Amino acid sequence: MGWTGQVMRVNLTEGTCTPEALNMEWAGEYLGQRGLASKYLCEEMDPRIDPLSPDNMMIFATGPLTGTCASTGGRFSVITKGALTGAIACSNSGGYWGAELKFAGWDMIILEGKASSPVYLCIIDDKVELLDASDIWGKSVWDTDAWIKTRHQDPQMHISAIGIAGENGVLYAGIVNDLHRAAGRSGVGAVMGSKNLKAIAVRGTGGVKVDDFLAFMTATTAAKKVLAGNAVTGEGLPTYGTQVLMNIINESGALPTRNNRDVQFEDVHDISAEAMAAPSGKDGKPNLQTNQACFSCTIACGRISKVNEEHYTVQNKPEYWHASGGLEYEAAWALGAAVGVKDLDALTYANFICNEQGIDPISFGSTLAAAMEMYEDGVITDKETGGLALEFGSAQALTTAVELTGKAEGFGKELGMGSKRLCDKYGRPELSMTVKGQEFPAYDPRGIQGMGLGYATANRGGCHLRSYTVASEILGIPEKTDPLVTDGKPGLVKAFQDATAAVDSSGLCIFTTFAWTMEDIAPQIDADLPGDWSVDRLLEVGERIWNLERQFNLQAGFTAKDDTLPKRLLNDAAKTGPAKGLVAGLDKMLPEYYELRGWTKEGVPTSETLSRLAL
Amino acid sequence: MHHVILGAGPAGVIAADNLRKHDANANITIIGDEDEPPYSRMAIPYLLAGQIGEEGTYLRQDKGHYKNHGIDVKRVRAGAVDPKNKSITLEDGSDVAYDRLLLATGASAIRPPVEGLDLPGVHNCWTMADARAILERADKGDDVVLMGAGFIGSIILEALVKRGVKLVVVEMEDRMVPRMMDETAGAMLKRWCEDKGVRVLTGTQIKGIAESRDGLDVALSSGKSLPARLVVVAAGVASNIGFLKGSGIDTDAGVKVDGFLRTSAPDVYAAGDVAQARDMSTGEFSVLAIQPVAADHGRIAALNMAGHETPHKGSLNMNVLATIGLVTSSFGAWEGVKGGTSARMCDDNAYRYLRLEFDGDRLAGAQAVGLTDHIGIARGLIQTKLRLGRWKDILMTSPERLAEAYVATSQGIAPV
Amino acid sequence: MQMALVIDPGKCTGCKQCELACSYVKEGEFNPAKSRIRVFDFHQDARFVPYTCTQCDDAWCQKACPVDAITTNEWGVKEVHDDLCVGCKVCTIACPFGTINFNASTGKVMKCDECGGDPACVKACPTEAIVYMDVEQAGFDKMRAWAAKTDAAAGTATAH
Fold first, then answer.
1. What is the ipTM of this complex?
2. Prediction pTM value
3. Shortest alpha-carbon distance between residue B203 and chain C (Å)
4. CB-based burial of residue A519 (10 Å sphere; 0-12 exposed, 13-18 middle, 19+ buried)?
5. Residues C65 and C140 in one domain
């Protein structure tokens, strides 16, 4: 069966590693990964604790399809209380690490407490131990990766680590695995750093079995055909990556530009997928070198890029001349349009630094955008920035700021607080483009109305990946809706949220849902696991997870007041493009959403709803 | 054309098969002195461990192999070779005439000058007869002393442990496998054996063996003694060249051959454990008594005997060994070359060790403990003298990336 | 007609579907560590290289096997017979490509056998980086050149 049935519990305070059986009752109710780990977190931890205290728990969790040949079956999530948000955090990553954990025999790693000095967790099949990390504390993710592989003489190890950002308490520090895949959001890396845990290295040589192999091969083979035949997953994503969206979103008038002052970026073509593929530099080779798949993925949207060797950022730094993870759409937006920068090499370099030092580019870019606006307004001056001219459009400002942020030096220390705290500190809270303390990404809700409700209600704070209604509103998947209207969006958002929660708990990548419906996914899970896993059951699991996460946040102190958007989106109309004259119509959607969810007007799940979902 | 092969080990059998491949009409005769069908000494440890039966050691699994290929296998010992008359006298008194002769008589176990080695219960572990004798005295709980922790001793060690005997290993040198691995690896291997409950006495000699009331009494240089029902002697091997005395064929440690595996006598070739042929690492002519070299020799000698002139550019010394599950291997100039550089990586806790020796940016030697994946690449790199360029620098700090270095270099992938 | 696995690393995305398919067919579970094909990740050089046995005409592993456990089938593929393999590992050090490996859980060696003429890795590869085709038609010489170079340099001319 898809689960290994084994969980490793690591108490960092005590220095103990104790295996235990997976709670199969919960697995039946929450599937795995996001859902199941959230269940463990909610059952075992008081939501009111300080996320950076030893009381916080962290769970690295795989799904039942992780490590199988189901396309994209390699995902894992990190579940904890977010350092940036104080809300439940669930950051999902690909690469190879999650599958390797499964091959080592573990569904999840639960981390508790705080180590007295830097350690890393080394998992070699059933041998799990905490080892001294003093030699790698202060090193980048990339150097840590190399050091651990050499130390254990195994280039086939997979490593998930924090960079110096996580060590330095950058509140949106992420956890990077396989050098450039990341559990990026909500500050899960800051939590890891607060625990003195530098990395988790895994080598697994065991196998993953499924419940019904023949049915599984039939279902996964059919599903792969669907991906291959779909225009987005079969052609758009492999060729252009998620950057396929850059021009489309700009044309839709929904590309947040210069801290959401504008909804279209005049230099969008310079940072688009086409620009990445165009010949550049002295050698005439493009920024984009090739595409890369995560484990088991037949889409392969990952970008492998190079910074032009003559570019100012790297001209004297050959250590950055190799290829590495290139710009995905959200990062290209955050490091580009959000701060008005059009220098593709500068964006790529900044992205490298984010990967190398474990920084979430979305939160970083949005925070920098807010700082730039305050700099323009004179609220932040050269005195605070140490002479760094934080001007919109300045590549130099971008690349210097990202270096300083990782190191927590100079103004980088302030940038590391995130947009909300920064804007609060300088008395301009309205300039923070955040929900529940988290910077939302690359879709302006004035141009894609459903995303406004999605951001406002996302349980981990401002986020596009909890209900990606862009699929419907822009791409027409599974059916086209008008991005400029609010009608029907509450139902659409709820449906996306529930389905996404289920997919995020399975081990699959949400990008499959550009092509797959739950009808394609359910048979794969059904063959993977004992028992019947129908579409209805999966959607119920999704809804249960959503309400569980909501319960956590309510207990952590969030209320309906936090289900909102920055004033700029609610009050200032879009200036150009199809959405010109529109604001985000959140007030038209939120009450209906609560009702559809079976929540009170205060956004609290009713007892009927809770008992219907067995919560 | 009559090809005669003296010796029914791997070199001889492989030569016979290759001769048949390249000369369909020739008469081929293999002459071996043991009673069994041609078998592999390499497989004896697995026979001792009970993993296979005797037939599992046979060099050719098809029962009709020799007959079907027109290869005549005689079981008789050769007495003398007369190169002038192209004739061999066998111990049964008969003569065999040859057109071309291959000396593939292999090696025999050395009997060191220790008193009591001829007592019942003291055996080499080299021939099938030895194996049968050992099997009779190595049952669960029996006290067994293994003399010698070289390559052969260390392989037998695993088989004896699997039989459940109470084992003590006595090695006169300061470490295990001293001619295959360095001090670090030898020490690691010893610690591994001791962790598994095997006593290993290094730097210790067996002074003598005497009969006692319960069996044997093994006197050690330390002054102590060990009880034993069985003593297994694995003190090394020496080429079987004694029968060539007076033949006029040049010998040294083994039979001297040239770059085509020809001996000093016309139409006489040598292969395998008996041949003193070129070692590609040192460029010198020495005996490399290992299975892959025997296989190489057998094939190349056969080609030359069949008239396809084929140079033997040198064999690579290499060994692989499993000792109670811990796999070790060494290749080529594992002790390093003059003016070369060395990369080492050791993880004592995990019983993993890798040492690479470079000559410029070429791999010259390697040894590994606890690493098996793609390990043959070490051979490929040493033997092809592939220039590693920038990868060599990477390997100096990350030797574990050996396989990557090979695949990348062969694909033209050069790191920045 | 001799069929062969022909690998084009330029098309490989590093998804490891081949490793999963291989281990499923050979081991009955998804387990890349036991796959007979391995994808090397050189993403810093923007390359991924699937790597497996090229079925040498005159196979090093086969020559080195002391117990005749490796045979050549009618398609020229070298097969390991588990019932005969004693696990001595001599083939693993003899193969200069490192494509026959020790499987600690069975105590035997394992290598690619092209799945009896219907290789699972080929069917699983989403980008046709691994194809199974007629040797002549494939311009197989190019692929073999590398192997031949190794053979020649090894000083023992291959007797094809």
1. 0.95
2. 0.94
3. 28
4. exposed
5. no
